[in-house]
Amino acid sequence: MHDHVSRFRDACYVLAVVRTPAYPAVYVRGTAARRLFPEVSVIRHDVIVLGAGLAGMRAAIEAKRRGVDVAVISKLHPTRSHSGAAEGGINAALGNATEDSSDSHAFDTIKGSDYLGDQDAIEVFAREAPNDIYELEHMGAVFTRAADGKLAQRPFGAAGAPRTVYSADITGHVLIHVLYEQLIKHDVKVYEEFFATQVVVDEGRCAGVIAWDTKSGGLHAIEANHVILATGGVGRMYYGTTNAFACTGDGMSLAWRAGVPLKDMEFLQFHPTTLKSNGVLITEGCRGEGGYLRNKDGDRFMVGDAPNAMELASRDVVSRAEWKEIADGRGVDGCVMLDLTHLGWKKIKSRLPGSRELAIDYAGVDPIETPIPVRPGAHYMMGGVDCDLWGETMVPGLWAAGEVACVSIHGANRLGGNSLMETIVFGRRAGQAAAERVLEQGDTGARIEPGVLADEDRRIAGILNNDQGERPGALREELAKTMYDKAGVFRTEEALAECQATVHDLRERAQTLRLDDHGSVFNTDLTNALELLSLLECADCLVTSALARKESRGAHSRLDHTERDDETWLKHTLNWCDDGEVRLDYRPVTITKHQPLARSY
Amino acid sequence: MQERYAYYPGCLASLSQKELDSSTRAIAQKLDIELVEMPSVTCCGAGDIHEAKPDYYLHISARILGQAEQMGCETILSICNVCTLNLRQANKALQEDAALLNRINDNLKEVGAATYQGGVDIRHLLWEVSEGNGYEAFKSIAVKSLEGLKVAPFYGCQILRPSKILGFENPDNPQSLERLIEACGAEPIDYPAKVKCCGFPIVLAREDVALGELVQPLEQAVEAGADVIVTPCPLCHLSLDAWQRKAADFAGKEFGIPILHLAQLLGAAAGIEESEFKFKRHVTRLSPEVKAKLQVPSAIGTEA
Amino acid sequence: MTEIKNAHLTTLKGAYDTELMEATLRIRRWDPDTQRARFDTFTVTVPVTASVLDALDAIKDTHDGTLAYRKSCRMAVCGSCGMRIDGGAALACKTPMKKFVDAGHTITVSPMGNLPVIKDLVVDMAPFWEKIRAVKPYLDTKDEEVPDTEWRVAPEHGDMIHKESLCILCGCCVSECNSMESDPDFLGPAALAKAYRFVGDTRDTDTRERLRDLNGAHGIWDCTRCYFCNQRCPKGVDPRDAIAKLGAESFKEGFVRDEGARHAKVFVDSTFKGGYLRETELVPKTIGPVNAVKDIPFALQLARAGKVPNPLSPHKAKDNDEVKRLWKLLEKEAKGAERPRAQHPDAVREG
After folding, report:
1. Chain C neighbors of A5, CB-CB under 8 A
2. Which of C276, C283, C323 sits opposite B11 (nearest CB)?
3. Are residues B104 and B148 in the same domain?
4. Does one domain contain both B112 and B172?
5. Do B280 and B196 share a structural domain?
6. Secondary structure of A304-370 as H, E, C letters
7. Is the pLDDT confidence value at A151 over 50?
8. Does residue B263 lie in a domain region?
9. A484 contacts A238 by C-beta, under 8 angstroms
10. Residues of chain B with C-beta less than 8 angstroms from the C-beta of C227
11. ∠ at Cα B228 (B226, B229), nearest 5°?
């Protein structure tokens, strides 16, 4: 067997030498003089949406409805996007279960953010959420219903009322499919399995995107005055993560290199209930439905850190409590136990069937009979591309929405159920604003110059053809373990400094990645390498920001600076790209009604 | 295997495939099993009633199951894949939903029919004789060795899939027919299409689509050198046997492979009377050579 | 540097502790450049909890980076990693390796069927998406006034499309669809399950048009009931059952002209006319008397073999009056029943 493998490897190297690595670099706009390959047709759109998860599809649908020419570019088919994995639900103060208000939703979100969220943004968010939910329902979303036929709402962590609209425990799945249906209904053009390698800025204005066609090979320049980034999160920089393989921070990296700062990158949420084997998330809905967390002695340890909210305290609080239990030796095989057995089979089968299936498939336990071993795992990037209330960045025409963006709604800690709502509210807003700008302004004249494409072509060819150095997978694993060990739930100066040094070393080593596959058709060796580069840039921003922030706030918990320090640190971190290096800068938080208070649950 | 079954031969074995009924009864006699007649039953619906009138399908199924229950039989013996799936599927729905069963029983009562309490199981003949004491019993009556006979097992769909309703064996790698073929002293022939569809359910409505499916097992079994194909399903039998001519025209090649009912193969090994086989009722005739390998005297009823 | 309290908390000791095993996989490769297939066998070291997808990742990272397959969520919800494992389509991420390792079995991994292969385990899903698009896969409330809040849907009505809305469009059902092998234009189990998701949605008012289209060529009556789709579906959608529900809805709406529908009708009628199937009626009533005449040589062949029961003395089961009464009772019940509809909130407020 091993002989065969090594023989095959040899054969591979031979192939690499004889195969012609050249792929067609494709230029898809313009005049004959600019066209590198004359046989290629012209492609140009008013608006390009990068990424086809909930935020991206919602943005594209909105722009299309407003009559502009919009196309979606995504490295995955839209329904493969990670929004589909969201389980628990989506928050809006409908007041269907008990009385509720947008103000209450806003306050819970501000408090949950540990006062780092911008309050003007949060107010817009909470106010517009209900109508966006109704619209999803009108589009056909299959939500769970209450007996009166209205949308059912369940309690979620740190929320003052049952505010979470849901579809059993497959809410994200239901929403990703309903938006894909609308994408078909509105006949939006989708460049499926196209991997964006560069956002092009021409004289300070957004000019479009250069993207690799994974299915057929080839680099395309696709021009648009407006590009909406909706590429999602970056959880894959951590070893234990709930995120899909695709969550590699591509959009953050694209924006950063295009000159837009990344904001609040040190705030990475750990979800309290993830499986050890592969990081898969077990929804907060399990605790919303009454599940308990127990240590190895069977005690409900949340009584220590959150005696009132118990298991339904904010995610950062629960994650820290669990981490302490495990690190202090009160865990079971590196986990604590999520106990649902007292809920009964009927409730588990009707309200939490997806979680049950995941526990059976990936933890080998049926939660009807046995508690599920869980631990905290990297889940959600509160930070991201700095943008305004409509999603626009400092580069005119470049917008961002969803997890890739940092508006900022979530501040230092996100509440469960708010991320799905954010994708819809701010996806719609970005689509609307970009379309209005197109209709008002017309062509800004920004173009992708042939030289820019040629340079990118050389860069990608360099990666594609390289057969020296280390494999992308090896570096990815080293990064992921380093981040999980040294920039995890609890942080110190010492650990973060070590982490930063390793990340810098990895960035250096990643300059030469050894690819086995030098072909042009469905070369996932190439896309893996490109994703690693994105992860490393985002990791550098995260660890640099975290090292600098000498306080504990929300998800950023420093053992050497255990208190929140509003005097010095009630401000947003900005990570600029300074010739490939991270440069830090800060900006005040917008406070409207709610002065920071101590946060307890 | 049990000593006593409610016997549900189904439409085909009762009418156009009477050779299956007679062979089954002969085998049951050899095995010393009592087959209790069910004189008042209807068709199981064959999937068609399930598709056209699902509520009616559940009612007639409950009536069939209820009759078995009232006859004091725990198990219905089926000799048809389609009956097996349809009755088991209805049974599962009725057993899992008390409110549904109550409503159906109320209706059955109203028309004076037998009601059902949920205590009956449906088993196919194949399952009963391919494992456990049934298998031992069969081996003890398999007195003739069908040595030299190459038999291609064709399972048909609805005895394998969906396994959450059928669940007797691995639907992708079933072995029960192979085990029985070997117990008969014959040689099982392996080929990929043995678990695929014969096309019968749509052979009237979508003949071309059905024939495209049907040619696969015929072609593969012949190429693999089989003398005969054996199947536990009378619908598959009808498709493979009676539609074989059309499949040959469709594929542009001759197959000429005889199709046996499972009960006929078992019967041959058990040495039951040739008259019970009613081979005259097959459209694709058995050659004297095949009959010889089946140890059936070729002097009588040779059509070669 | 001052001593930090609880400094041990930064790192979870033993976070990566896991038992390992050696897994062997035989993989069908397809080289898009040479258009040639071959099989490669690899042995990799993976955690005992590894899925087939994890094993493929280990191969790609450490043995052969040219191996191509799709993946994303690794938790059976994105639908990317459908492939054949020992010939049967499944999600690689939902298939644990351990049971194979324990059995000493080398699995064979190959691309899904009924779709063209691009490279190794990657198939071209374009024909699949085309069929999804063909069933008008979005809610249509036509001229209904859009409410200012949500449509009111009774929980039990929402449940009618619960199974179909679980579909992740992975294509595992399509991979082994026997009808599609024979008729590549058959809409197939995934698209039809999607179609029922709207036919069964009480908010959708395009029901009749949808059913009319689905009763056409390559529609619901192409299904050969091989049940591979139900067997393969990793999410419990049971597409074949959805197709049966579309048939039932078609009957309710009076779409009974297709040969498939007429075939089903003969079965229904037989039960209360005699008990067992009236086979002699099956052919002329399914394909029509004219086509039946064309098939006379074939019919004679069947008659010679005794396969055509005497039409003059059809089978008559004992106590068949019960069934007749049952049929009448249910038809009366069904006649009174209206198609369940979502309610406009204004109507609820007024009512």
Report:
1. 42-43, 63-64
2. C276
3. no
4. no
5. yes
6. HHCCCCHHHCCHHHHHHHHHHHHHCCCCECCEEEEECHHHCHHHHHHHCHHHHHHHHHHCCCCCCCC
7. yes
8. yes
9. yes
10. 85, 157-158, 160-162
11. 95
Q: Do A323 and C9 make contact, defined as CB atoms within 8 angstroms?
A: yes
pTM (2 d.p.): 0.94
Token pair 């991206």 in the structure block, residue: A56
pLDDT in tens, A279-302: 999 998 899 899 999 999 999 999
**Residue A91 main-chain phi, psi, to 5 deg:** -90, 130
Residue B235 lies in a domain: yes
Are B77 and B119 part of one and the same domain? Answer: yes
Cβ–Cβ under 8 Å, residues A205 and A225: yes
Closest Cα to residue A241, out of A285, A273, A280? A280
Q: Say how far apart CA C134 and CA A184 lie, in whole Å.
A: 10
CB distance from A11 to chain C under 8 Å? no
Q: How far is B41 from chain C (nearest CA, A)?
A: 6
Residues of A with Cβ-Cβ distance to C39 under 8 angstroms: none
**Domain extent at residue B211:** 144-293
Question: Does residue C129 belong to the interface with chain B, where contact is any CB pair within 8 Å?
Answer: no
Helices (H) and strands (E) in chain A, counts: 17, 23
* Domains located in chain C, CATH noted: 7-123 (3.10.20.30), 127-278+314-351 (1.10.1060.10)
A375 is catalytic: no
Q: Which residue of A has its CA nearest to C94?
A: A361
pLDDT 10s digits, A229-288: 999 999 999 999 999 999 999 999 999 999 999 999 999 999 999 999 999 999 988 998
Q: Which residue is it, tokens 């729905």?
A: B93
Residues B99 and B220 in one domain: no
Q: Would B304 be classed as within a structural domain?
A: no
CA B124 to chain centre: 7
Domain count, chain B: 2
Instruction: Give how far C273 is from chain B: nearest CA, Å.
Output: 10
From A44, A58, A236, A315, the catalytic residue: A315
Point out the residue among B43, B50, B280 whose CB comes nearest to the CB of C275. Answer: B43
Q: B83-138: per-residue pLDDT in tens? A: 999 999 999 999 999 999 999 999 999 999 999 999 999 999 999 999 999 999 99
C73 CA: distance to closest CA in chain B (Å): 27
Residue of C78, C99, C148 to mutate for A, most A C-beta atoms under 10 A: C78
Query: Is the CB of C154 less than 8 angstroms away from the CB of A490?
Result: no
Tokens (6 digits) for A467: 């057969």
Contacts of A225 (CB under 8 A, 6+ apart): A46, A47, A205, A206, A207, A397, A437, A438, A441, A443, A444, A446
Q: Clarify whether residues B94 and B226 are in a common domain.
A: no
CA distances from A205 to A29, A72, A201, A446, A471 (A): 17, 20, 5, 6, 36
Which of B68, B94, B125 terminates a domain? The answer is B125
Which chain C positions have a beta carbon within 8 Å of B18's beta carbon? Answer: 306
Provide the CATH number for the domain around residue B99: 1.20.1050.140
Q: Which of B91, B125, B159 is the last residue of a domain?
A: B125
| B284 shares a domain with B150 | yes
Do the chains contact at A134 and C66, CB–CB below 8 Å?
Answer: no
Residues B69 and B102 in one domain: yes
**Cα(B271)–Cα(A598) distance, rounded to whole angstroms?**
90
| CA-closest candidate to residue A245, choices A477, A513, A467 | A477
Smallest CA–CA distance, residue C119 to chain A, in Å, is: 7
Q: How far apart are CA A157 and CA B156, in angstroms?
A: 52
With beta carbons under 8 A apart, name residues in chain C contacting B61: none
Domain for residue B169, yes or no? yes
Buried b (16+ CB within 10 A) or exposed e, A29-40: bbeeeebeeeeb
Q: Is C301 on the interface with B (CB under 8 A)?
A: yes
User: Domain holding B175: CATH number?
Assistant: 3.40.50.11810
